[in-house]
Amino acid sequence: MSSETTGASYASAGVDIEAGDRAVELMKEWVKKATRPEVVGGLGGFAGLFDASALKRYERPLLASATDGVGTKVDIARRMGVYDTIGHDLVGMVVDDLVVCGAEPLFMTDYICVGKVYPERVAAIVKGIAEGCTLAGCALVGGETAEHPGLLGADEFDVAGAGTGVVEADRLLGAERVRPGDVVIAMASSGLHSNGYSLVRHVLLDRAGWSLDREVPELGRTLGEELLEPTRIYSLDCLALTRTTEVHAFSHITGGGLANNLARVIPDHLHAGIDRATWTPDPVFTLVGEVGGVERAELEKTLNMGVGMMAVVPAESVDAALTTLADRGVESWVAGEITERGDHAEAAVLNGDYGDGGTSGDRAA
Prior knowledge:
Keywords: ATP-binding, Cytoplasm, Ligase, Nucleotide-binding, Purine biosynthesis. Residues 179-344 form the PurM-like C-terminal domain. The protein is an alpha+beta fold and 365 residues long. It has 2 domains: 15-43 and 55-169, CATH 3.30.1330.10; 173-349, Alpha-Beta Complex (Phosphoribosyl-aminoimidazole Synthetase, Chain A, domain 2), CATH 3.90.650. The protein is 31% helix and 24% strand. The protein is built from 11 helices and 15 strands. The protein has helices at residues 17-33, 73-80, 86-98, 119-136, 197-207, 223-227, 235-244, 257-263, 283-292, 296-300, 318-327; strands at residues 39-40, 49-50, 61-69, 104-114, 139-147, 157-168, 183-188, 215-216, 221-222, 249-252, 270-275, 307-313, 332-340, 348-351, 363-364. The strands form 4 sheets. Strands 7, 10, 11, 12, 13, 14 and 15 form a 7-stranded mixed beta sheet that branches. Strands 3-6-4-5 form a 4-stranded mixed beta sheet, with helices on one face. A two-stranded antiparallel ribbon has the order 1-2. The longest helix has 18 residues, at 119-136.
């Protein structure tokens, strides 16, 4: 053994503090754009600050909180080397859970875990998060980048985030407001969003052996471009609905599929019947089913099938709701109705077959 030894260091263990500092410098310009007047201070503190005196205008403000990630969709971003869209997915998953109860998203924080800090890559991820926050009307007040050599490969990463919102207590939305005769309005998704990617990757990449740069005629673009399509963020659209008309409940269609998520906002004595014929799922959903031989029931409990958010409104609010969404560029349509449970064993079910490209019922945008 040599008489001269080199002492261990953080760098020799695989953690590059200077790279982390460089990443912070690169992301600052994007974080500055994702702000609100209530934000106090800037990037670099140990905690993000938000002026809570802004809540004085509420009679009884209820704070809502949510946390989420984007699952194995990060693997698609890694394989494609595209890092500035995955943040939109993260924000959508968090803020659209907040808005379900009627809460206005106020601020978010993020957590990025990497095997090795590549400053430009981390900054691109944060850029996407900041852009998503801007689309959602909330501020990005802080975050953390953690380097975990030995636990993650150099090119591997994961992202997570947490958000806080506020809603007036007497405007809280949910199952308690839903009544027989209410109408269910569906809002189109932008594609797969951020759920079911373990199934999609298993079917298209692993079993079928398709490459991400494969041109898929049914999709009109490459497979990778389709799979990386950012999650639509509905928070400002949903808040606009609550301002322009009466809304009883929202349901964010994520993991578990349409029926299971809608059932979460349906009272025990009521039933939501959704007519599949009122819309045609985007080709990617059919593709996964056909290539993988996946049964429809399995698809529907895993993927959003073309619906990213649902609103439950009184029948007299339907026209106003569809008009508001159309004005905001959100494709929406009447998808079903609320009835007494009666002999129905389940709170929410899908009926009939999907449309063939045409539409039935009221539709906007």
